[in-house]
Amino acid sequence: MLELALTRLFSVVLFYHFAFLAISIALLGLGAGGVFAYLLKRWISRFATRPLAMWLCMVNSVTVLLVLEIVLHVPVALEVSWRTLCG
Known about the structure:
single chain; mainly alpha; 5 helices; 80% helix
């Protein structure tokens, strides 16, 4: 959901290059999640799947809303200067 929201938001509000950035970050997240699940499969197997999935979905939904709120309120400038980096 975050990938879709950011892709649409970036392609409309910003330049289309940022939409490709959102897709790349989402793919990185999918890969990192797979590596995390593989490396910690013994630790994760201690938890019941249904409650774990429920809590992760709830945390993800809140995180998506927070990230979108932050993205919408941070001004974007395409010039490179200390003023744009430090806010």
